[in-house]
Structures are given as structure tokens and as C-alpha cells.
Amino acid sequence: MITRLAITPGEPAGIGPDTVIQIAQTQQQADLVVFADPELLLARADTLGLPLKILPYHHAQEKSVTPAGTLRVNSVPLKQNITPGKPDTRNAPYVLDTIKLAATSCLESICDGMVTGPVHKGIINQAGFVFSGHTEYLAQLTQSQHVVMMLATEGLRVALVTTHVPLKMVSSHITHELLEQTLRILHKDLKRYFCSNSPVIYVCGLNPHAGENGTMGTEEIDTIIPVIKKLRSENLNIFGPYSADTIFSDTNMRTADVFLAMYHDQGLPILKYKGFNNAVNITLGLNIIRTSVDHGTAFDLAGSGKTDCHSLQLAIDTAINMHKINLVTT
After folding, report:
1. Scanning 96, 264, 278, 301, which has the fewest C-beta atoms within 10 Å of its C-beta?
2. Is the pLDDT of residue 266 over 80?
């Protein structure tokens, strides 16, 4: 069965369009539908000196793999013409429209999953929209009560309890309910999409040395340990909390299916050091499949031909595999 994926290039002045055009240079093992302005893609392809043919798209057409040198495009017009590397707040509605339309195509089972390119949160917020990230926005669009951000590279997966939250607010955000929901979603979706029948989850403490029995903070005693004990009583393979400075050992990486960090910069520096530009961002807990690149808009590289599309290719391949495994496990 051929997988159909909705692709959103993200910020039009960034490297998202570049990477989409680059992956189009080889035949893809899926039916890729790009939600974007076709004129933007053709102009960027011309800047990059790469051949590109835009194919017509209709949601009722039969699925077929995307041939090399082509992109199937669901047309979404830009609000304002752009120059690579020079973002314009007037295009913020365009960026949000592409995400909304791609997500809707998945909710309506027209597409089997979506892959998103990098957006610039600052530009979107400057335009007057409240936007903290793809993860939170997609949760709203799909009416998902709780979602989990997980990044993966070869040999390592890291999920987050809190995402784009100021450091001074992290402790107050980590409640019994949030931590339990996060761990249950990890357990459920690792089984659903990654064929791990009894996933092993290692949990970081919040404080240095995981609180050291309360001498460096009590969040572990008050919240993290009770939740872990509750879920372990249900035979979930959850272990911790462990000190974040020792949890990512070679031994643990061989045995854990995922590491759960309490906040964004606790776990992701380790993952990005191990697999920068060779990682994929996955949103769990949605009622659709969504993967994304592990990098930002890189305005200084837009239109230069110096970008690397490997992360986008990995995000596409991951979404394909998640869809195929889901067909078997559900």
C-alpha cells in the first residue's frame, strides 16, 4: 500500500522550501502532497538551479509514488512575495493555513500523515497570532487533549514532559496529571507506531542528582516518584527518576526505548549532539501521524544551495514506517 503524506515547507523565507525541492530530486517511496504556493516552489527551484515540475493534485486521485524532479502541490497562495532569507509577518497566515489544511487532510483520511518543515515562532507571534509551536497548534487543530513531543535519532529517543515553557515555570507545570498522561501516551504510541510490545521508559529527575532525597528539591518525592510507582503497579516498564547527568549512559541507551526529560533543554542537547541533522521530531498523542525536521528556518542559508535535506528525508521515511506499522497494530 502506498502512503500519502501531506508536506508543509514551513516559513517561506527559510530553508523549508529548499529542502522540499531537494528531496524532490529523487523518487520518493510515498505519494507526497505539498501544501504550498507553487510559484514559491518554482521560483526557489530556479534560484537553486534545480529542475522542478509541479503536478496537479486532487484529493480523489489514486495514490502513486512521487517521481523524481516533481512535486504534487495543493496550492496555498502566499500573502506577500518573499525574498529568501527575508521573512515577512504578512505571510504568517499563509504558514498557518498550510498547517491547518494539511492537518485537515489527515483528519479526513485523505492523507495518511503529515510532515512539517520549520516555522519561525517569532514571526508568527509578531503578526498577532498566539503560537508556541507546531506541537501545541496541532493539538488544538485535532482537538487532542494531550500530546507529547519526542525526538529520535539512531539509537536514541527523547520525549519531553514540558516543551516551550520558560525555565522558571517548569516546576509548576509538572503535575501528577501531566506526568501520568505523558507516560501513558509514550507507552501507548510506542506500541502503536514502533512495534515495541512492552516499551522501556527511563525518566529523568527534575533537580540535580534527581533531588538527592529532597536535599536539592522535592519534585521527585512529591510528584515524579509517586506517578512512576502508580504506573509500575500496572506493569508498565517505567524506571527512575534518574539524574539527568548520568541517565544517558551507553548501557541505558541499549535498554531504553525512550528517555523522558522534564524540560526542553534537559534532554534535547544530548539528542542533538548525537544526531544533529539526523533526527526527526515526532508528535505523539495526536489522532494523526505527524513528523518534522529537527532544525530551524536558517534564514542565512535560504536559497544558497548549501542546505542539507537529510532531516526532512528522515521525517518522511519515519512517517511512512509509522503508517505501515499502525496498519498492522490497529
Report:
1. 278
2. yes
Domain tally for the chain? Answer: 2
Quote the CA–CA distance of 219 and 241 in Å, as a whole number. Answer: 10
DSSP class of residue 197 equals S
Asked if 39 and 80 count as a contact pair (C-beta separation under 8 A), the reply is: no
Domain co-membership, 133 together with 193: no
Rg (CA), the chain: 20
CA–CA gap between residue 230 and residue 180 (Å, rounded): 9
- What is the predicted pLDDT for the residue at 328? 87
pLDDT at 56: 86
Do 35 and 165 lie in one domain? The reply is no
**Amino acid identity of 276?**
F
Q: Which amino acid is at 162?
A: T
With cut-offs at 50, 70 and 90, classify the pLDDT of residue 219. Answer: very high
Q: Which three cell numbers stand for residue 248?
A: 544517558
- In order of 159, 162, 262, 314, the CA distances from 243 in angstroms are 16, 17, 11, 30
Q: What does the buried/exposed string (b/e) look like for 16-34 if buried means 16 or more CB atoms within 10 Å of the residue's CB? A: bbbbbbbbbeeebebbbbb
Convert the pLDDT of each residue in 102-115 to its tens digit: 999 999 999 999 99
Q: Are residues 116 and 240 in the same domain?
A: no
Per-residue burial over 150-186, b = 16 or more CB atoms within 10 Å of its CB, e = otherwise: bbbbeebbbbbbbeebeeeebbeebeeeebbbbbbbb
Q: Is 279 helix (H, G, I), strand (E, B) or coil?
A: strand
Helix, strand, coil percentages for the chain (3-state, nearest 5): 40, 20, 40
**Enclosing domain of residue 304:** 1-144+286-330
User: Residue 86 and residue 300: Cα distance in Å, rounded?
Assistant: 9
